[in-house]
Amino acid sequence: MYPRSHFLSTAFGVLAVICIWPQIALSQKKPASINILNSFEKSIERGAVDEIERPLMDFAIANPNNPKALELLARVRLRQGRLSESGALYQRVLRLDPGSVSAKINSARIAYSFGQKEAASQFLDEIGQLNSLTPAVQLEVAAARFLIGDPQAALSMINGLPTNVRNTNGLPLLAAIYLQAGLRQELVDLIPLMTKTAAANPAVATQSAEVLQNAGLHKEGAELLRSLPPKAQNIVKILVLLGRLEVLSRDLESARAHLKRAEVLEPASPEVLSAKALLENALGHPDEALQLLTDARQIAPASTSILSDFVLMSMRQGKHQAAIDGAAKLMSMEPGNLEFEYLFGAASLQGGDLRSAQETLTRLAQKRPRDSRTCVALGLTLAAQRDQIENARKQLGNCIEIDPSNYEARYQLGLSYKSQGDNKQAIPYLEEVVNQRPNYTLALRDLGGLYIEVGDDAKARGILERAAALSPDDADIHFQLVRLYNRIGETALAKQHLETFQKLRGQWGKSAQ
């Protein structure tokens, strides 16, 4: 079922021992065994995987035909990212208990991670009648359907759940479906329900905040986590996510405090190091940030989340090859992960490998036709090729159809006309962007420059002075102001901004004059 190359020798070793060990252990039906397994399961649910790994292994070896013990061990391996071992254990579970729903769900997830979508669908199809399952298990099946690329089936299943389940445990999945479908307002409308659920269910609040983070709703995600009871805010995972969201919403002091508390609770946590890297980068310390991520990778080399952070940080710092190599490794670790495909496409675009970028993003756009990020990234890839400019405009127009609030697509459309000197076509797009995002300084700068080109100095002045107030360290804004003030005869102001421009750009600025 899984690629032969992915089966680690340790997985075969574990299975061999389990299969040949003398069957002298307690029966799985005995209360003592049931209690032990229930205890293991509760430990896994609260994240204490390392604590119970060895005793669980010992129990599984002593009880080689106990499917529950093997299923729990497979679950541990899955949480550790040891997918091949987990998949092999789940196959053993299904041979012992062909009706195990949890084994089929997780086997589907693992198969999809290895790029085997048909096998993943088959596992889920074998589950049978959903109405015979508890709402909690139905929700797990829906989540698996969404993962393997069937959001409509997942949404249908969620809508069939009892209202109290849909509006509590079902919220993160529902939000993720809305996000992928480009239904941003529907996602935003779920936030009051998320907040209402947060106090009683921190796990749902955390998952919901992760979706809000992916949607770029960083402030809203942070507010959701801050609404949790004080006890929940001492959980390292919550502190790390809250710190990340605060960094992304530029509340850096709060982020520092929360990450410091997380570090006290778990000093060697790679997740804490990774979040601290995000903070250091936001504080203007890129070298420290990259070192923290390097340290985190050494502690957790199999962590795809930390490698993802490393790829993103490398992209921010212009380390193109490191980003491309990291993203390629992510895809090899989980070939079916669409987010990793996006990272590879985006890294390739940034690194100038337009062929790889176009191939990857075109393939991804077919899988996620309503994903705004993929849509815009493909549009940028096409726009970077002179012979593809019309296709780029069609692509970016499609992005706006998917999400009318997509200001980035409008901005790039405007730039596509600006780059060809078609200022009259470019200006309306940039004006729409500025109306949508009044503080988007890149659009303000470019729109101001266009107003200068068409001779509308009054509009140019208002736009560029606002841009300079918002981003005083943007050298290009000062350069545009030099052009404007020289045109209208305010030479003292022109000289002042020229000095600022030269200071920001150094020798390049002087030679540019």
Question: How is the topology of this model organized?
Answer:
Layout: H1 9-20, H2 31-45, H3 49-62, H4 67-79, H5 83-96, H6 101-113, H7 117-125, H8 135-147, H9 151-159, H10 163-166, H11 171-180, H12 184-189, H13 191-198, H14 202-214, H15 218-226, H16 236-248, H17 252-265, H18 270-282, H19 286-299, H20 304-316, H21 320-333, H22 338-350, H23 354-367, H24 372-383, H25 389-402, H26 407-418, H27 423-436, H28 441-453, H29 457-470, H30 475-487, H31 491-505, H32 507-512
Helix pairs in contact: 1-5, 2-3, 2-4, 3-4, 4-5, 5-6, 6-7, 6-8, 8-9, 11-14, 13-14, 14-15, 14-16, 15-16, 16-17, 16-18, 17-18, 18-19, 18-20, 19-20, 20-21, 20-22, 21-22, 22-23, 22-24, 23-24, 24-25, 24-26, 25-26, 26-27, 27-28, 28-29, 28-30, 29-30, 30-31
Low-confidence stretches: 1-29, 507-513
Give the integer mean of the pLDDT values.
87
- Assign the CATH topology of the domain at 167-299: Serine Threonine Protein Phosphatase 5, Tetratricopeptide repeat
Content of β-strand: under 5%
Secondary structural class: mainly alpha
What is the tally of helical segments? 32
The best one-word shape is elongated
CATH architecture grouping of the domain at 167-299: Alpha Horseshoe
CATH top level assignment of the domain at 167-299: Mainly Alpha
Q: Largest sheet, described in full?
A: none
Radius of gyration: 27 Å
Number of strands: 0
CATH superfamily name of the domain at 167-299?
Tetratricopeptide repeat domain
Could you tell me how far the N terminus lies from the C terminus, measured between alpha carbons in angstroms?
65 Å
